[in-house]
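Anyone? Bumping this.
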Amino acid sequence: MTSRREEGIALVKILFMMTILLAVAAYASRATRVDIRISQNDYLGKRALQIAEAGLGRAWRQIETDLTAGQTLDQEITGGAGFWSTDGAGTGSRSGYRTASIGSGSYYVRVENNADDPGPSASTTDNDKLVLIRAIGDIGGSERVIKAVLEQLPLFGNGLFAKYGVDLRGGGTTDSYDSSLGSYGGSNANGNQGNVGSNGDITNNGTPTTVNGTENAGGTITQGSATITGGMNPGQPLVALPPVSPCTSFSNGAGITPANDYNSNNHTLRGNSSDQIVLQPGNYCFDSITLNGNATLTVNGAVTITVNSTTNLTGGGVVNSTGDPSNLKIYSSQVGTGNSQGITVNGGASAAMLIYAPETNITFTGGSSIFGAAVGGTIKLSGGTNFHYDTHSASLGGAATQLISWHEVRS
Amino acid sequence: MIAITTMMLGITRFFLLQHRTNLQQEEGLALEQNLRLGSAMITDALRNTRYGLEPANPSSWITWVPGMTSNPNLTDNTSPTPDALSVAGCFQEPVATLATGPGAGGVWPAGTTTLTLTPTNGSDLTTVLDTTSRGLVRIGDSAELALLTSVGTSSITINTNPGGAVQGLVTAHPQGAEICRVDVVTFSIGNDPTTGVPRLLRDDNQGAGVQPLAEGISDLQITTPSPPKQYQVTLKGRSEHNDPVTGAPLQRTLITVVSLRN
């Protein structure tokens, strides 16, 4: 029997136990909340950095897309390219910016001219092929900022460059000169920047070639009996070579003489016998070009040609009366490296041109000389043809870019 | 009464067990947090390294940190002797921008040795730059480096030819080009002199010596699984207190692979 004095002890004990339980639970709950907040902050910080990286990557790809479509870094830094909105907050007076949501976060990315651009009107003109991308990632109150400098790579950074492979044979030579200093000759000749490169292999075959420059290949280099003054560098990083889009607005014949050498129905330009085709300065879109017999193709000013299929510039060859390779640019959208595909060019005293055909063959033949630069799917230099790389063509920016610096901004 | 006492004993034993488990989890969580913090600090520094200082020949520029022969510079030891890692780069916002230069359009021409700057924080340059451990700057985006031979409140005198005759700017720079300070950060492991607990240390190499970064980290091992860009950072931790369940310190390992961005 419970005495009166013991009545209520169970309640006291239970209350005591409940108090202890509540204290333990409160302590555990607080510690857990602190741990969760620490983890959450860590998690959000990492997410914010990843979102900023996403913004940087998006801007980078957009710039390459715009460059491939023919836009310029000037348009990027002024917000003139389609993707960007014009902003007043960048270097100088304008810049392009973009915001986007990713999940519950967002990024703000801005492209502007680098502060170190050495040329005039640096706020609206890119003079050094460098732009600054600033990306801010934001999520849940956590913010990370990264800045990166993007470099536009030259479209013609080598004398000869091929996506799949280079074949040098026939005893020819590569060297360099600078067309901005005048024609090839005298002290402006026999330079040592006649570089040859490839994302694939480079093979030096048959009668020894002399390369006054380096050979750089993503794959292997077979020297054979060739002389390569600058040395060989196999296993190099691959170079991005944006494709050429097929042209669709074919030429209507304007600016082409003789007029009957152009067939506006099938968009082919064909010169026979001793035809002397002349293209007036401007842009042309052809399906193909063929020079037979002693027919020649002459340009007297800045001409840009885009061709969609096989092109044969042998016959009497190409005459660029300006002597400046940048006044005859040939882009080929043809895809395929079969035997009958690509562009074939005969050398000549006035054969100055820049050729960009990253998915098909380019063959230089016929001896004599070619002046300028070429990028092809494959490249073959044969028949004792001498290729004189115009180093000035490296000033033409291409669509490929690379990040040359990256850092996270910490205040 | 007996039943209640037995129940109380059971509950007490249960709570004691729960308490020990809770302590064990607390120790484990604290250790893991420290490992994550340490790893984040090292990987962030590695990602940013070389921004402002190319990997070739850094010792000619970084004279205040002995043996800085590469960037990153790894003192490679075999576990359990921890590695040490030094990285150099511009880790902070630019300290200043070039003021208007004497050339056309405000350009600072090549060869200039004294430059007038606009401090970013609006204050005196001498608070952020000196001629010793804060005496290497990167000028502009072209990665031109310069050692400081004197620092004024709003101007600096530079030498771009370390070890040789004093030389000014190698290339011209426009007004507004950013000036950032190149810092060297060293990560290492050391014991707390009082408690003996191992911890991750960071040294900014600016005279303040090593500073504790995260407690309980007993080993740092760094390898390069895919050189030269990829680094694997392995941190091992040991709890400050013994695990109340096992009676031995808790052990944790965190492995992070990071790719250099520069």
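Late reply, but here is one note on the structure posted above: Chain A has two domains: 63-154+399-408, 160-395.
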